[in-house]
Design brief:
Distance between the termini: 53 Å
Structural class: alpha/beta
Helix content: 40-55%
CATH topology of the largest domain: D-Maltodextrin-Binding Protein, domain 2
Largest sheet: 8 strands, mixed
CATH class of the largest domain: Alpha Beta
Shape: rod-shaped
Length: 297
């Protein structure tokens, strides 16, 4: 391995075309510099310089070494700054996970946009999955932070931060008997009708939240169809197969042949969002996300 100090000395000799001037530039004596050049030639088994009466001329092999040396020295010079940027969370990668329903809420793109504008050198890796898999991904340090519809289970060493409460609304086919109702629809009024819900396996937190709201209102919903994704359930609703209870943000994605109505219940119908992460004081990129999240709330 070539000593980086030898490369720096060789670059000075090539750029000055004179060993004496290069020695002055490097603040050293000429004989040691001459020995450095000679040791490089011996080490590489190649003639690097032609000695001339009033200086030196670089050989083809010397030109190749000079170009490589410039690259190596530039990289070496950048290492301290890069290491500092990484330690300060100004470079590197942040991995963020979210469930399908959370990914539809406007707070997430707003958060990502703010992070990108502030920390442009940090790449963002996104992953959409079910809540159980996302919790495991934080435990296994695959994701730095995930956004779920419920807090993390106790005893896993995870921290849960409440981000927001999103209202739940009812999505109805345009020809549904309740679609023409001008006022809010009472949750209990949905009892006689067929339900279409986002499949529990894909959206366990939201599914359980909706069922809990119905149970608290005094009935068990008649689920006749489950959809693999929240957005795909809208196709079934538009087709008139049934109604559904959905987060309010979904209405920004689909309003064809669907009517959205506010829900009224003794207990507010909401779908909360939580940020789940491991407390890690050394993960500065996570700290930056949490700071932006707090400012955004």
């Amino acid at each position: 391995m070539i000593d980086i100090h030898k490369l720096k000395a060789f670059v000075a000799v090539v750029e000055e075309s004179n060993i004496s001037r290069a020695a002055v530039r490097l603040n050293m004596q000429q004989p040691p510099l001459t020995r450095i050049v000679k040791s490089l030639e011996d080490e590489l088994e190649a003639k690097l310089l032609h000695r001339l009466p009033r200086g030196v001329e670089v050989t083809e092999a010397g030109k190749a070494l000079y170009q490589e040396a410039l690259t190596i020295l530039a990289h070496a010079q950048a290492i301290p700054r890069r290491v500092q940027n990484i330690s300060q969370g100004l470079e590197g990668q942040i991995s963020i996970g979210f469930t399908n329903s959370v990914g539809l809420h406007s707070f997430l793109p707003a958060l990502l946009r703010s992070f990108r504008e502030t920390f442009s050198a940090v790449s963002i890796h996104l992953e959409e999955d079910g809540s159980s898999s996302l919790i495991d991904s934080v435990i296994n340090q695959k994701n730095d932070i995930v956004f779920l519809r419920k807090p993390a289970p106790i005893g896993l060493g995870l921290t849960s931060l409440h981000v927001l409460d999103e209202p739940l609304i009812v999505a109805l086919p345009t020809n549904h008997p309740l679609a023409l109702q001008q006022k809010q629809i009472h949750l209990l009024d949905l009892e006689p009708y067929d339900f279409v819900l986002y499949r529990r396996l894909a959206g366990q937190d939201l599914f359980d939240n909706i069922l809990a709201s119905c149970y608290q209102a005094g009935f068990s919903p008649k689920i006749i169809q489950e959809a693999p994704r929240l957005t795909s359930s809208l196709n079934l609703i538009a087709a008139g197969i049934g109604l559904s209870i959905v987060p309010a943000s979904i209405k920004d994605f689909w309003n064809k042949q669907i009517v959205y109505k506010e829900l009224k219940a003794d207990t507010p119908c909401i779908a909360p969002v939580y940020a789940v992460f491991k407390q890690d004081m050394e993960n500065m990129r996570l700290s930056h996300v949490l700071k932006l999240l707090t400012e955004q709330s």
